[in-house]
Amino acid sequence: MPDAAPPDRFQTEVLDKSHEKPVLVDFWAPWCGPCRVLGPTIETLAKESGGRWRLVKINTDAHPALAQRFGIRGIPAVKLFVDGTVAAEFTGALPEPQLRQWLAANVP
Asked: What InterPro entries does the record tag this protein with (predicted)?
């Protein structure tokens, strides 16, 4: 599970791979309390998914251009890429049951 997909690898790690399986991108920052709550939950669910979808975490402090490119105004911000485009998204730390519902509704 890559910790980051810097701009030079975003195309291959997220957009291209989203044609093979959905890619969930977690835009976060180390100082963000809600990010530290949501991150481990998403990582656990990624492992539980059995490879149905892929997780990529992007530190917005380290990669501000990517955050700007995708209009990130608040974090945590989660975007689900399918076939190279954003298929679903949410901002904020969802509780695990809501996150499971969101994934069930949005991951093909």
From this structure: Thioredoxin (IPR005746), Thioredoxin-like_sf (IPR036249), Thioredoxin_CS (IPR017937), Thioredoxin_domain (IPR013766)
